[in-house]
Design goal:
This protein is an alpha/beta fold and 249 residues long. The protein is built from 8 helices and 7 strands. Bound molecules: nicotinamide-adenine-dinucleotide. This is SDR family oxidoreductase.
Length: 249
């Protein structure tokens, strides 16, 4: 990954919590916000000071409180932790449906609930959720994942409506296919990884995978003062799929 591209000092004095921040998009977000001046508490299952499972309410409360005690405040929450699933609607059993929703949707509710008392005290409070083009694109073989990200989109808008009068802005990013460890793991298990990578690139109008840093810069924009009047939107970072109204087949 190239050097973070951010605006130095934009987040000076502010504290951000990034879930799933030990890998991929979340790691790039944590680095970008830190470059722009934020102190960042990375919440993840491992490889961080603030170990946390977003499916466990006690673990979430402990980790959010630990970040607030360590840095004295929380101004920005990036709900990014997420897991994938492949298959048609019948391709995953109930346990798998509940597991993915527990991480991707209820996880956002848990972490936000724990962070709200701190966000309410911040004059610059912002929440950014990591959604996906899967929320609206009708991707084949992604029924469960798409449903979970559709819920993230709806939740983003509902949260935005509920909390804007408290001074908390809520928005989300909707990335296309991003070059992260998750996608690389998927490619590694494909029968022909090179062909699969080429197909993923071809699906995006700009002909390549999105970089995690590009998503991180979009998150930083939505989390920072430059977007002070932007509320309840989804910001596509997808090489043109949403903007050009393209649908994968
Ligand atoms: P990744 O697997 O590289 O990173 C995800 C991180 O989330 C990991 O560090 C993992 O440990 C953490 N995590 C998973 N379950 C957790 C839990 N229960 N509690 C705490 N942390 C947990 O994946 P990524 O590609 O960086 O994806 C990050 C987010 O971006 C996800 O929400 C994903 O749905 C979304 N997204 C990814 C892509 C893509 O193409 N990679 C596209 C659109 C949206």
């Amino acid at each position: 990954m190239s050097e973070p591209a951010g605006v130095r000092g934009e987040f000076d004095g502010l504290v951000a919590v990034v879930t799933g921040g030990a890998s991929g998009i979340g790691k790039a977000v944590a680095e970008e916000l830190a470059t722009r001046g934020a102190q960042v508490g990375v919440l993840d299952l491992k490889d961080t000071e603030f170990v946390c499972d977003v499916t466990d309410d006690d673990s979430v409360r402990r980790a959010v409180t630990a970040v607030a005690e360590r840095f004295g405040r929380i101004d920005v929450l990036v709900n990014n932790a997420g897991i994938g699933a492949q298959g048609t609607v019948a391709g995953n059993d109930d346990a798998e449906w509940l597991r993915v929703f527990d991480v991707n949707v209820v996880g956002i509710a848990r972490v936000t609930r724990a962070a709200l008392p701190y966000l309410r005290r911040s004059p610059h409070a912002a929440v950014v959720n990591t959604c996906s083009i899967a929320a609206t694109a009708g991707l084949p073989q992604r029924a469960l994942y798409s449903a979970s990200k559709g819920a993230v989109l709806a939740l983003t808008r509902a949260m935005a409506a509920d909390h804007i009068r408290e001074g908390i802005r809520v928005n989300c990013v909707t990335p296309g296919t991003v070059d992260t460890p998750w996608v690389r793991r998927l490619l590694d298990t494909a029968p022909d990884p090179d062909a699969e990578r080429a197909a993923l690139c071809a699906r995006q109008p700009h002909g390549r995978l999105v970089t995690a840093q590009e998503v991180a810069c979009a998150v930083a924009y939505l989390a920072g003062p430059a977007s002070g009047s932007t509320v309840g939107i989804e910001l596509p970072v997808d090489g043109g799929m949403a903007g050009l109204r393209l649908r994968p087949v």
